[in-house]
C-alpha cells in the first residue's frame, strides 16, 4: 500500500519558516540596535578636555534622554595643568553664582594618596558626604600600582575598618579622590588646601547652559557631570605610575 505524498507547497513553506525564524528570534531589528547605542550630539573642546553630549535611547518608540559629561584628556603635564585651570575656573564661576551656604557636588581629587584616617579627618571637617571613592594599591610581590573604585555606604569609623583589609596581596597607599557633596564655602577653603589637586564641579554655568538647551527641547538631561573614574585613572597614570586599568 502506497503512502500519500505531501504536497510540495506546504513543505516549502515549512522550510522557509524554519530558515527565517531564527533571524528574528536571536537578534533585534536594525532600528532597535541603533536606538540602544548612544548617539553623540555635540562635542565642545576646552583646554585639557571635552564636553560630550550623547543621546541615550533604548527603544525607537522612546524619546530617550541626554547625557552630558566632562571628559578629561590628561596625557601630559601640560594637559593636566590645562584641565586643572579650566575646571578651577568653572568651579569659581559656579561658586560666584551661588550663596556661601549652598551645597554643590564635585569630584575631589587629591595630589597624593591620603591615609584613610586622614581622609576621614578631611571628610568630617569639609565634606557633607561622599559616595564613590578611589584608592591606590601596590601589589606586594610585583610592586605594580593599581586603582580600585568603591561605593561608600558607611560611616567614618566603618569606612576605616572596611577599607584596610582590601586584599592581603596588596598594600594600601591611600585614598586618591572621591565624589562628594560639599558646602560652597568649604569648597573655597579646600582650594587652598595643599593636599587637594582639584575640586571638579558638577553643573557649572558653562555646562549648565548646554544642559538648559537640551531641556528646552524636551529632553531629560543626566548630568552635567565631570568623569570621576577617567580623571583619577589618567591622573594616577601620569603622576603616580599606576598601571592602565
What's the gist of this structure?
The protein has eight helices and nine strands.
Report on the architecture of this protein:
The protein is of the alpha+beta class and 245 residues long. The chain is 39% helix and 34% strand. The chain contains eight helices and nine strands. The strands form two sheets. Strands 6-5-7-4-8 form a five-stranded antiparallel sheet. Strands 1-2-3-9 form a four-stranded mixed sheet, sandwiched between helices. Strand 1 and strand 2 form a beta hairpin. Helix 4 runs antiparallel to helix 5. The longest helix has 20 residues, at 77-96.
The count of DSSP E runs of length 2 or more, i.e. the number of strands, is 9
Show unreliable segments. 1-33
Percent helix among the residues? 25-40%
Shape: globular
* Beta fraction: 25-35%
On the 0-100 scale, what is the average pLDDT? 85
Number of contiguous helices: 8
- How many whole angstroms does the radius of gyration measure? 26 Å
| Succession of helices and strands | HHEEEHEHEEHEHEHEH
Largest sheet: 5 strands, antiparallel
Structural class: alpha+beta
Summed up, the domain count is 1
Q: Layout of helices and strands, plus pairs?
A:
Layout: H1 8-26, H2 30-36, E1 39-46, E2 49-56, E3 65-72, H3 77-96, E4 103-114, H4 116-126, E5 127-139, E6 145-151, H5 156-163, E7 170-183, H6 184-191, E8 196-201, H7 205-215, E9 220-226, H8 228-239
Parallel strand pairs: 3-9
Antiparallel strand pairs: 1-2, 2-3, 4-7, 4-8, 5-6, 5-7
